[in-house]
What does this fold into?
Amino acid sequence: MGEKIMFGDIYRNKKVLVTGNTGFKGSWLCTWLISLGADVYGFSNEIPTTPAMFSETGLANKMTHFYADVRDLNAVKKIISEVEPHFVFHLAAQPIVSLSYTEPVETISTNVMGTTNVLEALRTYSKPCTAVIITSDKCYDNVEWIYGYKETDAVGGKDIYSGSKGAAELIFKSYYHSFFKKEGGLVQVASARAGNVIGGGDWALDRIIPDCMRSWSEGRVVEIRSPKATRPWQHVLEPLSGYLLLGEKLYKDHTLNGESFNFGPKPEYNHTVQEILEDMSVRWHFEDSKQAYKITGDIKFYEAGLLKLNCDKALFHFQWKPTLDYHTLIEYTSDWYYEYYKNKGEMFAYTLSQIKGYEDLASLGNIAWTK
Ligand SMILES: NC(=O)c1ccc[n+]([C@@H]2O[C@H](COP(=O)([O-])OP(=O)(O)OC[C@H]3O[C@@H](n4cnc5c(N)ncnc54)[C@H](O)[C@@H]3O)[C@@H](O)[C@H]2O)c1
It folds into this structure.
């Protein structure tokens, strides 16, 4: 049997530029694009953590990487004009809610002006290009209702991070209406909104899974500040499959230009922090969960309550839906870190094997992008 075709093979031999390529999602996206046969480029201002998935997988040697600040318009323009990308995935951001309280200006300048600069560089770019702007489910004005948020709901945000993502969405729409909307234009743009993701290779601060993995790797008990908090958990590959599918569809169908899409988890993924840690501790072979986590119940900053995404639009337009069940999500996430910390495995090959496993499960589930 020949190799399976993914995303209509659209990324093979295409130049794809990923901003924020040294980050958690960026590293997974670049690894996946490499496996899809793309010629992958990326830029970031730094490697955001130590360790980082970008370093531990040796991605710097497997793609073309630049150091640049997305707040520097000339630098962004120069990279785009030198690379001449067919696709751009914009992920560079200050993504940590707690940091947005101590560094509000940096958060706003990176997330809002950074997005503006990418759009502005694309406005003055003179070749065909398909761009997917990644924001967040936190871009929605969270009115704390029980319904899923639709792409037509108002953007907003009570904390600085959410506000910056809402603002990035507004800028995206203004750029679309002012510049990219015209018929026969060279650049097609869309925005993608996904929620909290987990998966191997994330070492960001103040995220529960990285905090937990750091603690367990050092033999420490992890403290949980809100054990009953429910999160719509999903594996990082799930929204990435949405971003890649959106890129493919937008490339082929220009009527999607200017549209936004939600990529959220299955509703049954709403598990509490405590449940997730309990299940992950089993895969880390803890005999007693008391050795794995301790409940402290101390919430330090305002974080919006449950926010559910309505993903009917992605389902309707391109039959997108998530692939993994809850148990495989836990398995993929905890096993990646276990491979890294305990087995000292080769993490690029291991990441590729998880991507292949994910593609196989998606094929079995007849998920649209596997054709
Ligand atoms: N991880 C999640 O759960 C989640 C959820 C929803 C949305 N998102 C969004 O997805 C994107 C990627 O998130 P992530 O989790 O990979 O974050 P991350 O912190 O791991 O990566 C962020 C990337 O952006 C780069 N960056 C930051 N400031 C920059 C600057 N001034 N100039 C150039 N590059 C800069 C970093 O170097 C890094 O490569 C972000 O836009 C984030 O808001 C993430």
Q: What stands out?
A: Residues 12-370 form a domain with the Rossmann fold fold (CATH 3.40.50.720). The chain has one domain: 12-370. The chain is about 40% helix and 15% strand.
